[in-house]
Specification:
Elements lengths: L1 H13 L5 H7 L4 H14 L4 E3 H9 L8 H11 L6 E3 H13 L2 H12 L6 E3 H15 L11 H13 L6 E3 H22 L3
Antiparallel strand pairs: 1-2, 3-4
Helix pairs in contact: 4-5, 5-7, 5-8, 7-10, 8-9
Length: 197
């Protein structure tokens, strides 16, 4: 009977992420949710680490109609908080917690970090164009109506018209945050106007 107990104990240990208490403090997930996420993560990545190529393969399955590899690269960089070229469970679950349950400020900081490709604290037109092209590539050519080749560049120009408040050619996190919050307030106001209490 001892062998069975030991096997059961080992199984429980295997599905217990390292530093569970730390992850409970760092994320907005419950213990049960973390254990469930960990089981799924270990199922997909038995080594406990995901390299960029594996991440691209997994992510590309969600966008069979296009090429998601470039966008997946940017996404991988945003999740890889310690910049070591591999995602561990902690990197994954901390990013997921922000995206699913973070405050508006945390989500906007995460999005800004995604767009700030070289992580210098500014979004340039070149960085934004790379991101936009990767999104259009990921969506594929089957979008309706069919998009012009100039669509990503036009999107970037609109983004900078709204975001680059001082006209210096780069967007800081403060500009990004301020514009997003204004848009959010405007949308809430419009919803209230359309659907009065």
């Amino acid at each position: 009977a001892d062998g069975g107990d030991a096997e059961l104990e080992l199984s429980a240990v295997r599905h217990q992420p390292e530093g569970l208490e730390q992850l409970l403090a760092q994320t907005k997930f419950t213990k049960k949710e973390l254990q469930s996420l960990y089981r799924g993560f270990k199922n997909e990545c038995p080594s406990g680490l995901v390299d960029e190529e594996t991440f691209k393969l997994i992510y590309s399955q969600f966008f069979p109609q296009g090429d998601a590899s470039t966008y997946a690269h940017f996404l991988f960089d945003a999740f890889d908080a310690d910049r070591n070229g591999a995602l561990c469970f902690q990197d994954f679950v901390v990013g997921l917690s922000v995206l699913l349950r973070g405050t508006v400020h945390q989500k906007l900081k995460w999005a800004f970090n995604l767009y700030d490709i070289n992580k210098d604290g500014y979004i340039t037109k070149e960085e934004m164009l790379e991101i936009m092209k990767s999104i259009y590539d990921m969506m594929g050519r089957c979008t309706h109506p069919t998009l012009r080749d100039s669509a990503p560049a036009e999107h970037v120009e609109l983004f900078f018209q709204k975001m680059d408040r001082n006209g210096d050619g780069v967007v800081t996190f403060e500009e990004f945050l301020e514009t997003c919050q204004k848009v959010s307030q405007l949308q809430r106001g419009l919803r209230r106007h359309r659907h009065p209490p």
